[in-house]
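DM from R.C. (forwarded with permission)

"hey, sorry to bug you on a friday — could you get me a structure for this? deadline for the figure draft is monday and I only need the backbone to look sensible"
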Amino acid sequence: MSTITMRASAQICLMQIQQSLGGKLSSGEGSQCVRAKEPSSLSYSRGTEIWKKNCCRKRKTHAGLAAFFVAEGNGGSSWQCINEENMTDYEIMYDFDKLYAAHKKCRLGKAGKREVVEFELNLSEELVRLQKELEEKTYRVGAYYKFTIFDPKRREIQALSYRDRIVQHNLCDNILAPLLERYLIYDNSACRKNKGAHFAMDRLNKFFRELYRKHGTKGYILKCDIKKYFDSIDHKVLKTKLSRIIKDPDVLRLLFIIIDSYEKTPSKGLPMGNQTSQWFALYYLDSLDRLIKEKYRIKYYTRYMDDCIMIHDDKVYLNQCLKALEKHIENELLLQFNQKTQLTTIKNGVDYLGFRFYLTDTGKVIRRLRTSSKKRLKRRLKKFQREYRQEKIKLEDITHSIASYKGHLKHGHTDRLQQKIFHDFVLTKDTIITKDTKITQDSKEVKDTTAVQPAREHSPTKQARLPE
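My reply, with the result:
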């Protein structure tokens, strides 16, 4: 069927349904080419209501057409009114429009990846298959593939296939995030909307200033860090916590399947590449947050994932808090603090999210880039120079990375550092000379076309300097 014929059929179908129902048929922006040989359903919206009709006809929709193409045949049943606002959480999980929206978010920045291209070659069939698995409760998490990163330290990342990431996007965006937001404290940062690393840094800045106005430079900082946090999260404890707040048994069953799909040690550990793992990790320490804020009344407290900072004017009180927190995480959460946990004066400063925070005698809060972060940045710049010289990386990619670094450095007192590092940062390309030589042996001439590569030279005409 040609596109023109399909459009005409769509208009006829729309008119027939509108005449029979007295309303307007509309489809979401995710209407795709769907072929369902089994009994499926047509959707019809009127106001806030959604009407669905189970039918024994083939349903076909074309991308961009807000219509259904009904094939020849008999059958059908009565129309049923369903209020969209009363959909259960698990019905949202297998809603086609929600899955399509999750796919669009999941493909951002990855449209050229092989797995994304292969998925989109049969987009409608893949989404319908995923929808059917979720609806019939036969969905299972696929195998993880692993890779290692070394920035800032060695970490093994476990990632899922593209179709599984679509499920996780839908689950987190429409169910987990709205639910957990109601339980998390205000200063629990990371992976939350408008509450990233810079939000946490600004909050710590504010706490420093408020303490100075009340107590001057007399203050103490308790920094706590969890030992191998993601690998140490206990599955049984996490499931118990989730069971208290999630009432939909089908959603809970899906979450348990995801939790049990990976373990570092028996019944422990979450995969760092999962979007759900970020939300689980945020909520897992919620009881610790409540203990600090509600029982010990620590006003100046912020947490970014497993990095906790508490500020108070009484050193003895913070020591008491530390002992209670250690007891809580060991007995209730089955975790341990690592050697980074320390109690220090506010004058000495504290490392937090890549910066070193200081409080001067005049009350000014100074953010300096941490020494380890400086070394890492310098190593990265040298790597850029080396790979650009060998033509392994494009200037455009380097420019984007440098712009990202500068954007992050702007959140600290790093003007002199930027001037020192970036002012003399020049990219050069190698000049490789190739010569054809002729070798004569006796009276016989032998041609030898071997390439001669002298020592690499930097051509001054092939330099690139990044824009200021």
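R.C.: lifesaver. The longest helix spans residues 3-21.
me: no worries. The mean pLDDT is 79.
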